[in-house]
Amino acid sequence: MCEYSDRLIAWLDEEVPVEEAAVVEGHLVTCGTCRESLIAYRGVSVEIKAYCQAVTDGEVRRPVATWAFAASSVVAIAVAVVIWGGFSARARVKAWPDPAASVATVAIPQQSEPKDLEPLRPHHSAAYGSVAPERMGRAHRAETATTRAADLNWIPAEPSVEIVVPADTVFPPGVVPDGISFVADLSIGADGSATWLRWRR
Amino acid sequence: MSGDSFPLVFPYGHLTPGEDEVTALYGELRQPLLRYLVCLGLSGDDAQDIVQDAFLSLQQHLAAGRANRNIRGWMFRVARNRARNRRRSYEWRFAVPLDAEEASVAHQATPERTAIAQESFRRLEQLIRELSRNERECLFLRAEGLRYREIGEVLGLPTSTVADTVARAVKKLAESYHV
Lengths: 201, 179
Prior knowledge:
The complex is a heterodimer.
Chain A: H1 5-12, H2 18-30, H3 32-59, H4 66-75, E1 89-95, E2 105-107, H5 136-150, E3 160-165, E4 181-188, E5 194-200
Parallel strand pairs in A: 1-3
Antiparallel strand pairs in A: 1-4, 2-3, 4-5
Helix pairs in contact in A: 1-3
Chain B: H1 19-40, H2 44-63, H3 71-85, H4 92-95, H5 98-102, H6 111-114, H7 118-130, H8 133-143, H9 148-155, H10 159-177
Helix pairs in contact in B: 1-2, 1-3, 1-8, 2-3, 3-9, 7-10, 8-10, 9-10
């Protein structure tokens, strides 16, 4: 076996110093065995990339709701997505009663939860606040009970998700008077991505 | 105003620090991260969940003013750690017999899949299965364009070890795949 064979792959990956690269390139001019090996290594590298792409294409057929991530990056809002028969869910948004609270909460009425789904998928939430991501499910369930108890007048008529957003994360202080709340209609497509969001008062 | 719609616009002052950078990285790294996670054996849904989690972690990381050197390696490491926490699916692809898996992966009739000869694909998958875990992971990370130094940071290995591992894995595949 040629003494350069061990360095061919590092050279192929541009991981050797410039001086050594020149030596390897000079060797390749004269060594047919290394040239053949290089072709094989390059071919395998291409095949591995194609393999990874093909496997991913077979597994990931649905586009991620990129707008949701962009929106969450901008406003640090909590967005919970519940796949329920692939159709629309109803969302309700209102000002957080305690301005000091920094954690957006999401409440999902019990009757809207399919048994085979988690009540909340915290990775779709945009703001974890001070709660560790891996504990968000439990934290949100606790908040759900609190929110539900504080807002007994609202009884959803269909599968729904309630999003409570701290007002000071969305509007400057004082812009939204006390007692003003908003309702958001959130439509979720069959692939789980949000198709539109409409806010109304 | 009831029933009226209005654009979702928020004051600039409420933007999270580093969000521009996060958005740019999302466009750049989302697909490589998905490919890496799926190749490790995660389902498409799990992979997408982890990628979104990883970017939320990145946003918090940058917002906290932490170092943003080698973000790419950092993102792959976060994604890998989260994948390992999902032990039920991690390495699923390489833990079950090939015959059982073929029905779910290799034989799916998709345009992408048919672009690759079935026999060649199956053979390569079998060879990858025979590699060690480190060899597989090094190859998958290398396929996403990570440098040896970055691969070492993701896997917790010295750069020289990564170089040796990559060389060994590529040679094994080349010798078996092209005979």
